[in-house]
Design brief:
The protein is mostly helical. The protein is 42% helix and 0% strand.
């Protein structure tokens, strides 16, 4: 099938400064919708069970003492 279109969700990057055609734009939008629908429930569950990072103003994230 030489004329087949690659619709896989690979991580192919387009270089900076190149124009994105309408097909690529639609494909990216579909990917983003699927990713959002999959990741949202996991975020809710992680928040419910306490998997969040606490931010303390003035303290560094590293072991500074």
């Amino acid at each position: 099938m030489p004329d087949a279109v690659n619709l896989s969700l690979d991580s192919r990057r387009i270089g900076a400064g190149t124009m994105v055609d309408e097909f690529e734009r639609r494909k990216n939008r579909v990917r983003a919708k699927v990713r959002a629908k999959i990741k949202h429930p996991y975020r809710i569950l992680k928040r419910v069970f306490g998997f969040v990072q606490a931010c303390f103003p003035g303290l560094h994230a590293t072991n500074s003492g």
